[in-house]
Structures are given as C-alpha cells and as structure tokens.
Prior knowledge:
Blueprint: E1 12-16, H1 23-34, E2 38-40, H2 41-49, H3 53-60, H4 62-79, E3 84-86, H5 95-104, E4 105-111, H6 114-118, H7 121-124, H8 136-150, E5 155-158, H9 164-182
Helix pairs in contact: 1-9, 2-4, 3-4, 4-5
The protein binds shikimate-3-phosphate.
The site of shikimate-3-phosphate (S3P) has 11 residues, from loops.
InterPro entries: P-loop_NTPase, Shikimate/glucono_kinase, Shikimate_kinase/TSH1, Shikimate_kinase_CS
Binding site for substrate: 42, 66, 89, 146
Binding site for ATP: 20-25, 128
Amino acid sequence: MSRQHIPVRAKNIVLIGFMGVGKTTIGKMVADKLYRDFIDVDIEIERRYNKTIPEIFAQHGEGYFREIERNTVIDICDNKQCNIVSLGGGAFKQEAIREKCLDSCLVLFLDLSWDHWKERMDLLIENRPVLHNKSVDEVQEIFDERQAIYAEHNARVTTDNLNPEEVADYIVEILKLGWELHQPLS
Ligand code: S3P
C-alpha cells in the first residue's frame, strides 16, 4: 500500500490499547484541549447501525462486528482529518486497519500494565462481549496476546499512575513537540 501524503498537523490522531485503558475519556480530553473533533469508533458504529456493540455481537457474531469495524475505521481514515479517534481494543487485530491507520494517521498506544488493568476488570465486563464468561487467566491471555498488535504504533504513552487529565496533557505536549519538529509554523 502506498504511503499517503497528509501533512503531519492534519493527520488524525488514533488511540489504541486494551479495553478500558481510557481511550475514550482521554481522547475526548485531548480533542477538547486541541479544539479538534473526537470520534469513538464504537460509538460511531452504534450510531451508524443503530445497535449497541453487545447487541451486534449477540445478533450477528464477532465476525460481522469486525467487518463493520474495519469499514468504519477505513471510512474515517479516508474522509476525516485533524480528528482524535479512539479505536476499539480489538481493532488492531485486523491488518487492514493497522495498515490504514499507520499509513494515514499518528497512532498512539495507551499502555497500561496488567496489574493496574486487572483492578478495573469488574467495571468493564458488562459492555464488553469479548470478556464475557472468561476467567481472569483467560483475560490475561488475551491481554498478553494483544501486546504484539499494539506494538505497531508511532508513540507509546505509559498510563500507570497517571490520571486521565495527566495523560491527556502529556499527549498534547508530545503532539505539539512533534508537529513543531516536523512541520514548524514559522
Ligand atoms: C473490543 C473492544 C471494545 C469493542 C468491542 C471489542 C475488543 O472496545 O470494540 O467490545 O475486542 O477488545 P473498547 O476497547 O473501547 O472497550
């Protein structure tokens, strides 16, 4: 796939990472701080298909969800610029999504350690079909497997011991530094 030539300041900022690391909360904050629009891909899918994510999984299965997830992400990448976009935690399993995002956007990996993540697990299960009927060990297996797909990113942000506001401030800082370095305003 050929590289798209999008000026660095215009590229969408894509947040990746495991379920519940704070992609939506932090993404919204980053968007507010930069006066940009925010898109949560799961919310966008629910809006476009008029069903919740658990309903889509229950009625059509994960395969169908992954197909519409892929189409939605590619559509956003092709038609939006300057947006802050949070991806579902499993989106980067798909090569087409990884390639598209790495080709046309800046991809930031929100990295939370397993020890910190597992404290949040009970709060996350209800709306995450991927976690249903799984033991803690099984979830840890998925968590560990997913680290390989998240390894494909432009920058990693370690979020252990930081609150969402601190993570958002840090992201804004590194974005501004990167923009200035690659596309100075003066
Ligand atoms: C999924 C993560 C969810 C959602 C779907 C599948 C996954 O998004 O896309 O339930 O496979 O990790 P969040 O990461 O926003 O919870």
